[in-house]
């Protein structure tokens, strides 16, 4: 155990967050996301029993978002015609706003298959048990400035 580190972040996840460099991306996936398939060239970290919001909040306490891109946070866009509501996105935007001055303005949407393509090139994918649909989120790492 360490002081000041959210206990939900496992040693493996902390190691990965530390290893990531500027512009590397990490996906926090919902329970329906094909994490193992998408993560064939990435590190896949299982966080079963947890949802995306608590993982996102813990990560953003330590993880700077990329200030050099307009949308360092991206959500998987709902497929047109799919009658799905996404209230979890508002939760994500509130969490992001706690840690980045751009707030919801730095959150974008990526078409479903384009999201999959980008996920295949992510440094890591965190597989959660999140039950909300379209609850996948991708973060692009910035630089630590002290």
UniProtKB/TrEMBL annotation:
One family name in Pfam for this protein: RbsD_FucU
Keyword list, A-Z: Isomerase
SUPFAM superfamilies linked: RbsD-like
Organism, scientific name: Candidatus Galacturonatibacter soehngenii
Source taxonomy: Bacteria, Bacillati, Bacillota, Clostridia, Lachnospirales
Gene Ontology annotations of biological process type: fucose metabolic process
Cross-referenced InterPro entries: RbsD-like_sf (IPR023750), RbsD/FucU_mutarotase (IPR050443), RbsD_FucU (IPR007721)
Protein name, per record: Fucose isomerase
GO molecular function: D-ribose pyranase activity; fucose binding; L-fucose mutarotase activity
Coiled-coil zones: none
Catalytic activity of the protein: beta-D-ribopyranose = beta-D-ribofuranose; alpha-L-fucose = beta-L-fucose
Keyword Isomerase attributed: yes
């Amino acid at each position: 155990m360490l002081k000041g580190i959210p206990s939900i972040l496992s040693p493996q996840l902390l190691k990965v967050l530390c290893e990531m460099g500027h512009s590397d991306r990490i996906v926090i996936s919902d329970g329906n996301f094909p994490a193992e398939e998408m993560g064939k060239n990435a590190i896949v970290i299982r966080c079963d029993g947890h949802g995306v919001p608590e993982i996102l909040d813990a990560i953003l306490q330590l993880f700077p978002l990329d200030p050099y891109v307009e949308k360092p946070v991206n959500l998987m866009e709902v497929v047109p015609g799919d009658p799905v509501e996404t209230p979890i996105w508002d939760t994500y935007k509130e969490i992001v706003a706690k840690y980045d001055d751009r707030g919801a303005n730095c959150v974008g949407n990526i078409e479903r298959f384009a999201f999959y393509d980008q996920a295949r090139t992510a440094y890591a994918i965190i597989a959660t048990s999140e039950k909300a649909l379209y609850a996948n989120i991708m973060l692009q790492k910035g630089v630590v400035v002290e």
